[in-house]
Amino acid sequence: MEHNRSTLEHLLRDERIHAVVVTANFLRYPASDQERFRAGLARSVEALAAAGKTVVLVYPQPTPWFEPPSALGLMAHRGENIETLGPSMQQYERENGDAIAFLDSLARRTGAATFNPADELCTPTFCPVYRAD
User: Fold this and answer.
1) Within a domain: residue 25?
2) DSSP 59-100
3) Per-residue pLDDT tens for 90-104?
4) pLDDT tens readout for residues 39-58
5) What is the pTM of this model?
6) At residue 4, does pLDDT exceed 90?
7) Of 132, 124, 111, which is closest to residue 52 (Cα–Cα)?
8) Is 75 inside any structural domain?
9) What is residue 4's DSSP assignment?
10) 3-state secondary structure of 21
11) Tell me, what's the pLDDT at 96?
């Protein structure tokens, strides 16, 4: 906690810093810690915005619950299409829906900009872990 406080103080004081990109792994925190974690994140974003910093909130990235290099290697060895490996958008939204709603609300309250990696990495139905392009 002290590290987080001192980092925030530095970001607020340093006039050379005009923009702050905020990202967090919401799934890493147990349900019992979510309220405290989100309250602290909101306080930090609110303080940065009040100090005139441009804040960019990065939404959860699509993350499979398996080790992609191993799974891709196994699929390639079997001659399978490796571009079919990855979580569905339904799974991504189910796992991250609460975090996305929280970030949406925080962005509206603070005027923060947002970036959702899923918008760039996924199709409307699927988030591949590998793409040839």
Assistant:
1) yes
2) PPPP--SS-HHHHHHHHHHHT--GGG-S-BHHHHHHHHHHHH
3) 999 999 999 999 999
4) 999 999 999 999 999 999 99
5) 0.85
6) no
7) 111
8) yes
9) H
10) strand
11) 94
Residue among 123, 58, 115 at smallest CA distance from 87: 123
Which tokens sit at 115?
């970036």
**Is residue 19 included in any domain, yes or no?**
yes
The structure tokens 């979580």 sit at 87
User: What is the enclosing helix (H) or strand (E) of 37?
Assistant: helix 31-50
Are 109 and 44 a contacting pair, CB within 8 Å?
no
pLDDT at 28 over 90: no
In the numeric block, the tokens 């810690």 are attached to 33
Based on the structure, what is the number of domains in the chain? 1
Amino acid in position 119: D
Domain with 27, as residue range(s), is: 2-121
| Residues listed for the chain | 133
Tokens 């079919």 belong to 84
How do residues 61-77 score in pLDDT, each as one tens digit? 988 777 888 888 998 99
- For residue 21, being part of any structural domain is answered with yes
